[in-house]
Amino acid sequence: MRSNDPKLKVPSKVRWLILLTAFVAIGQGFLITAVSAYLPELGISSGEVGIILGASGLAMVVCAIPFGIMSDRIGRKKVLMIGLVTTPPVLLLCAFSHDATLFLIANIIAGISEAAFLSAWNAMIADQTTVDNRSMAFSMSFIVYGAFTGIGFALPLIFPMFEDMFSMSSVDVHSYAFLVLGLMAIISPLTIGYLLRDYKERPVVKASRALLGPRSKKTLVKFSINNTMIGLGAGLIIPLIPTWLFLEYGITDEYSGPLLAVSSITIGFAAIFSTGLSQRFGPVKAIALTQGSSIIFMLAIPFMPGAAYAATFYLIRAALMNMAGPIMDSYLMGIVDKEDRGLASAINSILWRLPNSATTIIGGVMLAAGFYTLPFVLASIIYSIAIVAFYLNFRNIEPSREVSAGA
Question: So where are the chain's domains?
């Protein structure tokens, strides 16, 4: 992530900030896998698992806007630290819990933690970068988070080895894993707190009582069209890819779990190319190019002659679609007012999460009814509309230039 041009280099403090989140990223990835795959092993029903996952998402949605306002008014650092310090207790609680209620509490806390983190993270990176190096910083963030979350996804692959070596049960291995990852996650808030010990932020005093300035409000209304529709399309099938692989090809989670891990890591490393694309074509064209290319592979997945081909096309689709992620985060932070970045990040996250959760239910109903191709087709159509609308709305809007806090 280095460049010979000093203007394009990611500031040292931002690089360390990103790298030090790796400890919580592994734990978060493992938690996602454990809730969906490990809890049924404990005798917790799929209905209860759905409630646990839904409660986490609901907690994130409810808390995101308040944390976004706090991020803009009292400073990013305080809100970011709330998101970091609440992650270790979640993992430690799961280490000593075999009860659905305690897992529910842990995942509600995880949702609150996610809301705080997302409300401050993008804004903090944007505040310490300029329009020249911001895309590279967000690309680095995607790479680190994608790679280490993928490690968390893949951890259960080695659990049978530990069970055989130490004559341990699956429950014991999972409990020790939660304990180790919970203790490891403490490293992130401790080291980031030390890194930011001298980081000063000026409280924002707005001229009006409006939550968003006129420019930011107008921008977010347009931006929400793309984000909401992408969330709608993705929800129809992307969270249900393991289910689709099982129904279509009989592939169990023994293989679909590692596929998700490879996908997460692939997404992270695909972000390496996003900075170059943004610099060459401009952010809007780069976003439209990568997201538009992914639709071809999305539409082709259900027509593949076998599971291996379908999985390969899924990985290519995921890399192309999410290659636009750091560009979009960087671009949004550059086209809203600086004092609105925290709330803008929160609203942006909500506008994707809510429709995504709703259409996942619809996608599940389609698969249950035997329509294995329809979700892919509908998702591709919605993606196409979203990408065209995004390009038309933003093709003439350039991110503003300002001096970064770390300059």
Answer: 1-199, 211-398
Q: How far apart are the C-alpha atoms of 254 and 173, rounded to whole Å?
A: 17
Place of tokens 């650092």: 77
Domain 1-199 indexed as CATH 3.40.50.150? no
- Please, are residues 171 and 16 in contact by the beta-carbon 8 Å criterion? no
Let me know: does 324 contact 282? Beta carbons within 8 Å. no
Q: SS3 for 341?
A: helix
**CATH architecture assigned to 211-398:** Up-down Bundle (1.20)
Region of 129 please: left (phi>0), alpha (psi -120 to 50) or beta.
Answer: beta
For residues 114 and 137, give the distance between their C-alpha atoms in angstroms, rounded to a whole number.
20
As given in the structure block, the two tokens for residue 237 are 């099938």
pLDDT digits (tens, 9 = 90+) for 166-181: 888 888 888 999 999 9
Domains 1-199 and 211-398 share a fold: yes
What is the token pair recorded at 300? 């082709």
Rg (CA), the chain: 21
SS3 (DSSP) at 397: coil
In angstroms, the Cα distances linking 112 to 82, 102, 240 are: 9, 15, 24
List CB contacts of 244: < 8 A, sequence separation 6 or more. Answer: 237, 367, 372, 375
Within 10 angstroms of residue 399's Cβ, the number of other Cβ atoms is 19
**Global model pTM greater than 0.85:** no
- Amino acid at the residue 333: M
